[in-house]
Amino acid sequence: MPNPNRGSCGYQSSEFEEEYERPSKSQLKREMTALQKLGQELVEQARDRVKRVPMPEDVRDAILACQQITNHEGRRRQMQFVGKKMRTLDEAEVALIQKTIDSWKGASKAETAAMHAMERRRDKLLTDDNALTELLSEHPHLDVQQLRTLIRNARKEQAENKPPKAYREIFQILKQLQKAPAGGDALDDEDAEDQEDEDNE
């Protein structure tokens, strides 16, 4: 008995149209979402950075305007406008913006890795007495008495659940040792990391 579900061997042309129409709509939506996200990433960057990104002036103006809006609803509407502006860009312009953002992320990853390395070294100084000897052999100019006092105080802070003042000071000393001679935003970075330490405690 023939299977009634099989029908004829051929397919209706409308079935093909439906099959191919859906992915194209989905693809379009994915591209729109990606452009909206790209715009959001730019809005979250520092203004000076945004000004250096190669993009049309009207797109940049929309992003800079969005950064200045503090009202939630106003900012949401401006973000939609930013998304609309992002969709006017051609593929080459989008690729250039993405490349710029990726280069920032690469720098950020390196900074984060360095920060984690310093945090691990600080924790080792508190748990392993040999770590201080090792640090002093690498940097003989360090004030050994000051470091010993800070380590002792940091251990006490942890034991008594006190604010991590000495703990943060050790981090700053390690950061000064790590820092390259040409450090443009060193103070801003330190302030940010101080705050991050406070948030993590």
Key phrases:
9 helices; mainly alpha; 201 residues
Could you characterize the architecture of this molecule?
- Helix 1 packs across helix 5 (91-127), helix 5 (91-127) packs across helix 6 (129-138) and helix 5 crosses helix 8.
- It contains nine helices and no strands.
- The chain is mostly helical.
- The protein is elongated.
- The longest helix is centred in the middle third of the chain and has 37 residues, at 91-127.
- It has helices at residues 13-43, 47-52, 57-68, 72-86, 91-127, 129-138, 144-159, 165-178, 186-200.
Task: Summarize it.
The protein has 201 residues and is mostly helical. Helix content is 78%, strand content 0%.
N-to-C order of helices and strands: HHHHHHHHH
Taking all Cα atoms into account, the compactness measure Rg is 27 Å
Q: Give the N-terminus to C-terminus distance in angstroms.
A: 75 Å
Q: Tell me the number of strands.
A: 0
Question: How confident overall, as mean pLDDT?
Answer: 77
Q: Class by helix and strand content?
A: mainly alpha
Q: Give start-end ranges of low-pLDDT stretches.
A: 10-23, 180-201
Overall helicity: over 70%
> Major β-sheet, in short?
none
Instruction: Give the overall shape, derived from the CA principal axes.
Output: elongated
Strand percentage lies at under 5%
Question: How many DSSP helices?
Answer: 9
